[in-house]
Amino acid sequence: MNQSLKIDPYGFREYDARWLYEKDINAEGITNLGKGLGTQIIKRTEINNPRVIVGHDYRSYSEEIKTALKKGLVSTGCFVEDIGLSLSPMVYFAQFNLNADAVAMVTASHNENGWTGVKMGIKKGLTHAPEEMAELKRITLDQKFISGNGNEKEIKNFKEIYKKNLIDKNKIKKKIKAVVACGNGTAGIFAPEILRAIGCEVIELDCNLDWTFPKYNPNPEDLEMLYAIAKVVKKNKADIGFGFDGDGDRVGVIDDKGNEIYSDKIGLLIARNLSENYKNSKFIVDVKSTGLYANDKILNKNKCETIYWKTGHSHIKRKVHNENALAGFEKSGHFFFNDPLGYGYDDGINSAIQVCHLLNNQKKGMSDIINDLPQTFQSPTMAPYCKDEEKYQVVENLVNEIKKIKNEKLKIDNQEIKEILTVNGIRFSFDDGSWGLIRASSNKPSLVIVTESPTSNERKIKIFRFIDEILQKTGKIGKYDQKI
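Below the sequence we write its predicted structure tokens.
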């Protein structure tokens, strides 16, 4: 292997690729990734010169990485169509709009500065599944590359086509005052303009592009970002607050009273709203999502089915596609709208627009709409550090331990575990509807912990304490990013 080539195998994650730039991967490593991806696209599409849409987010080094990636793609015979500074959903949209064969978006989404990565896909509207990532990893690390004559061209002003597509079909009548927060990420040059154009009065918060992220990472699950939005919502008496992540495929929501609403609850409200017009529909939600979907009276009345599935934008997107579901909702803020509402991929701005439609259709404010749902006490998503090479084994051991607790009918806070779901880590639930989740993060060296109780805040905390106790016993857990 070339001495100057650097590419850490652990950067190939479950459904996208992420590295610390220069520490874990260098420009030559990125070029090899491009060669690997180009080879994979050609093999899977059986086209000698497949057309690949490429875009990048607004980090200081993203353009440099994109240049290295394109070099690799072109060397295999790919015809690269570069749409420039983009959101991930804009790249997905471009594949449909320009009828291309594959996509590669240079972004580390909401990860801290220093991280880079690529979100990629071949089949329209879908991103790489674990088996495609494993294949890409193999091709790239073994350097089994195809050689060909590719080329590249720039597609100018594609962002105007993307914006127009969202604006034209989504005009609203009600004047909604919305705080739009972008955490200085790429969504800043898209979201305020689109939401204004559909009819919102927009108050901008950190919408200027600044790749140093001076306040906090643009992450709608980050409490710091959500608190900042809440403050501005209350100060301006706004109807709603939206927080977008770094590459614009996720959104977080704050109601008119300044309370954050977890995205799984927003998903439930949207699902209820849609179920009136689309009876007998299927909805897909991830295992981190509220237990309320399972017995929701409105979804049941409209004969809609909810399937709990693996966390991760690629998994939910694929499940929405395979089940021909109407929509999918992920607690992290990825929402997926299938035909006739969208192309099946996740777009944070389209998700915010669906929330605007919800407000447009009702005479109530967002806080009153959310109060129509049964109350539950939910934890934020908590991520204790756990090494990449250890996290899956740690989770597997915990799955066995919790299964044993269930079989032996041992009680946690005076209740037995009633049901276990192991499609992704382990989600264990109790008779009162409370539950806890432990899974391995797909894109960081950490685990993911979530708890919820419809009974009390105290019960939610007790379930977390039970999880934390068994985690600490493993001796393989580090600091939490946030905890209750």
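The mean pLDDT is 95.
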